[in-house]
Write a structure and sequence with these properties.
This protein is about 20% helix and about 25% strand. It is built from one helix and eleven strands, in the order H-E-E-E-E-E-E-E-E-E-E-E. A six-stranded antiparallel β-sheet has the order 2-1-11-10-7-8, with no helix packed on it. It has a five-stranded mixed β-sheet with strand order 4-3-5-6-9, with no helix packed on it.
Length: about 160
């Protein structure tokens, strides 16, 4: 091997080594300090919601799953926000660590977009959004959209909440 070839190999190896070091430092910085999140634009003043005309209700058997007529709020029973009550509307509610979520839960066991509450007909459903630690309803892991019973504990990360009247 000529001296020039050996010199070029050494320089190439040195450049490759520095590239690897910068990649490791960038990865560590992103893990320790997080990736910069873009700020969402401030929303204009919310539009008033039209009241919904009450629908004639039919009697339902006891023990029926939570419906819009029986469930009006979420109550957090344990976790960082224990005691917080959130009124439910008819729109889906995303639960997670992200600022974009309707219910923001900041703990190490909650994913950015962890779960979603969806009103399906008259039934509230919980859907896990491929979270790392899973979503649990009444002790069972949620793998598919699952109907929520009023008063049954739902666990997202380290937070437990219930749907109540």
């Amino acid at each position: 091997m000529t001296e020039l070839t050996l010199l070029l190999l050494r320089i190439g190896f040195l450049v490759l080594l520095w590239f690897f070091i910068f990649a490791v430092v960038y990865s560590l910085r992103a893990d320790l300090f997080g990736v910069r999140a873009r700020k969402m634009p401030e929303a204009d003043t919310p539009k008033p919601v039209k009241p919904v005309k009450p629908v004639k209700e039919h009697p339902k058997p006891a023990g029926d799953a939570a419906t819009t007529s029986t469930v009006s709020r979420i109550v957090i029973t344990s976790g960082p926000k224990a005691g917080l009550e959130i009124p439910l509307g008819t729109e889906p509610l995303t639960i997670g660590r992200s600022r974009e979520s309707g219910l923001v839960i900041r703990d190490d066991f909650t994913s950015s977009h962890h779960a979603r509450l969806v009103l399906w007909g008259e039934q509230w459903m919980i859907q896990d959004l491929d979270s790392t630690n899973g979503t649990w309803h009444d002790g069972d892991k949620v793998t598919n959209p699952t109907p929520i019973r009023a008063g049954a504990p739902v666990k997202v990360g380290a937070t437990v909440f219930e749907l109540r009247k």
